[in-house]
TrEMBL record:
Belongs to the ERG4/ERG24 family. Its main location: membrane. Coiled coil: none annotated. It is a multi-pass membrane protein. This is Delta(14)-sterol reductase ERG24.
Length: 423
């Protein structure tokens, strides 16, 4: 075992057994959510739990369309212009550069879809709703293929492995991600598989799925005039979130997924299947269960989302500006033995993950438009809460390793983990 790629001695997610359970559980949950909440199976939930029939899992047309979608994203990455931005310094001392053009890819995709809808009517873009299960299968197959491919590639002599992904247990390493930054060369340009998947094919597909669900509602209700206020709210919030993520694309380069985690099945299925198909559940529900909120509830939900967005954005900007030497707020901080500074006032003085707090408030605002008819449309809030609590724990552990006593000192100053005065 080389010094650069030490053997991993600690398992996360309960080791190989957990890796197996999550790898099978994630696709099953995506199908399960469709089964438990869809028009085709009889409602949300269906009247008899085991009585309804699932549509075909395999749909060749959907698979071909999904492949075309993925290729569109790759071609857009290659041909659209974009700044070359350096990532963080890797532990072997090298720095990778990334092409920043995810936002232009989103704009291009939306322009094409809107042109299609204007030219041919909303009915022309309902195929994502109608062939939903086929698209799920295509994205899961794509995730498996990619995870197998990057696992095989990671056995090159020059591969830099993730510190957490080199246990030697095939199942676990395949799941958690063995290589830190699997890269291909596409027409002479370095293609970083992990950052590409994290921001483009899945997040933009989430937007397109939502637009397709709105088109289905419009088709049924006499055009876009018949689209309900609840559907508009969900689209506004979720498209706004994706726009924000892609517009701030360089911010992803310092997240733990990019700096620390390898790319394996957990991230490939999370990025390509889980994000678009479970995060869009609310809009899919509203397609077959339209809800009119009226001005009072619309304004109330807009307010909840605005509060969440304000916290999420100002917290992330405070940290990014501070770390980039552009702080205008005179935030208090202390310098750690490692040399980096930890903020102790503003949002980062109120809790150790104020951005997660904003994110979870937004998650709630995205489910509220579906009313209180079924708990299933609140799945995202629950999952996201669990994800963020777990992520907070992982980050705390990583910071403890990085900063040692300095992290203890920071924890003494900032006692709350996510929600000030509560958690
Ligand atoms: N919608 C979704 O499904 C998901 C959304 N997200 C969102 O992604 C965003 C990024 O999240 P994530 O990467 O987990 O973590 P953060 O952006 O919260 O970054 C954590 C890192 O920030 C640095 N840091 C911590 N405390 C301080 C401080 N006081 N002062 C300065 N730096 C500090 C540390 O790294 P260092 O010191 O090494 O720089 C730490 O590892 C969040 O807004 C989150 O809500 C995340 C996951 C899923
Ligand atoms: C069910 C399963 C296997 C879960 C894996 C977790 C993934 C769903 C998440 C891990 C980190 C993520 C990030 C985003 C989406 C969810 C996943 C993939 C993210 C792209 C959402 C938008 C944000 O602005 C972000 C870019 C910061 C974020 C990055 C992490």
């Amino acid at each position: 075992m080389s010094l650069e790629n030490p053997r991993t001695t600690k398992y996360e997610f309960l080791g190989p057994v957990g890796a197996f359970l999550i790898s099978t559980g994630v696709p099953l949950t995506i199908y399960g959510l469709y089964y438990a909440c869809s028009e085709q199976t009889g409602g949300c939930p269906p009247p008899g739990l085991f009585m309804s029939k699932l549509p075909a899992f395999l749909d060749t047309q959907a698979a071909l369309m999904y492949l075309a979608w993925y290729l569109f994203c790759v071609i857009a990455w290659r041909v659209l212009p974009g700044a070359q931005v350096p990532g963080t310094t890797l532990r072997n001392g090298t720095v990778k550069t990334y092409k920043i053009n995810a936002f232009s890819t989103l704009v291009l995709a939306i322009v094409i879809v809107v042109a299609l809808i204007i030219y041919s009517g909303p009915d022309a873009f309902t195929f994502l709703y109608k062939r939903y299960v086929g698209f799920v299968t295509a994205s899961v197959v794509m995730s498996i293929i990619q995870a197998v491919g990057v696992y095989a590639l990671s056995h090159r002599k020059d591969a830099l492995l993730a510190l957490g992904g080199n246990t030697g247990n095939m199942m676990y390493d395949w799941f958690i991600g063995r290589e830190l930054n699997p890269t291909l060369s596409i027409f002479g340009e370095e293609f970083d598989i992990k950052t590409f998947n994290e921001l483009r094919p899945g997040l933009i597909l989430w937007v397109l799925l939502n637009i397709s669900f709105m088109c289905e509602q419009a088709t049924r209700n006499g055009g876009f005039i018949g689209v309900t206020d609840s559907m508009w709210l969900v689209l506004l919030f979720q498209i706004g979130y994706v726009v924000d993520s892609l517009y701030n694309e360089p911010a992803i380069l310092t997240t733990m997924d990019i700096t620390t985690d390898g790319f394996g099945f957990m991230l490939s299925v999370g990025d390509l299947a889980w994000v678009p198909f479970t995060y869009s559940l609310q809009a899919r529900y509203l397609t077959f269960h339209p809800i009119t909120l009226g001005p009072f509830f619309t304004i109330l939900i807009l307010f909840v989302n605005a509060v969440g967005y304000y916290i999420f954005r100002t917290a992330n900007s405070e940290k990014n500006d501070f770390r980039n030497g552009k702080d205008t707020r005179n935030l208090r901080y202390f310098v750690t033995k490692r040399g980096s500074k930890l903020i102790t006032s503003g949002w980062w003085g109120r809790s150790r993950h104020p951005n997660y707090f904003g994110d979870i408030i937004m998650a709630l605002a995205w489910s509220l438009p579906t009313g209180f008819n079924t708990p299933i449309t609140y799945f995202y809030v629950v999952f996201f809460g669990v994800l963020l609590v777990h992520r907070q724990g992982r980050d705390d552990e990583a910071c403890e390793k990085k900063y040692g006593k300095d992290w203890e000192k920071y924890k003494q100053i900032v006692r709350w983990k996510i929600i000030p005065y509560i958690y």
